[in-house]
Amino acid sequence: MIARLRGRVVWKQAPQLLIDVNGVGYEVEATMNTFYTLPLENSEITLYTHLVVREDAQLLYGFASEAERTMFRGLIKINGVGAKMALTILSGMSIDEFAVCIRESDSATLTRLPGVGKKTAERLIIEMRDRLDKLFIHAASSGGAGVPTADSARVAPVRKDAVADAVSALAALGYKAAEASRMVRVVQTEGLESEAIIRAALQATVIK
Question: How far apart are CA 86 and CA 9, in angstroms?
């Protein structure tokens, strides 16, 4: 099991990134909440990871905090919730916002996430309610968060294709292409990097 990576961010395009660890490149899929914390490319980062082994692939998922990884691991134990859906849930809202949805039985907010239907939302509420406290206690005892270097405070230049990158990222998270384009169109994108556009689009769509 690969539990943690510390290396240099070589490339990133949400929700995927490439981390160079002593000359070995690791492809990682990360939640958007993790992406918001990433430093510039060629800067050092530490991510907590979870490895999913399938018949046709080995997929590595990365998280800026132990708490987010713990929640991810809790989600994929729910029947009908795979790694992709867990990644989508933790991209569309923070773990605290998700916890509020569970505790308040707010299935309406959960069903705004792509792939989460009414039955899945109800299953999440029922099965996660009793697990939340244990998950948060475990995460708190483990402690830690991703540790970017001071370079992370630098402002990245805005790429001309930031809007296209944002649409692609939303599609990768499970939104249909037309819906992803609509979500981005309602956001004031001028001067924003793709991660900021995605965050604004998700907040406008999911957290109402």
Answer: 23
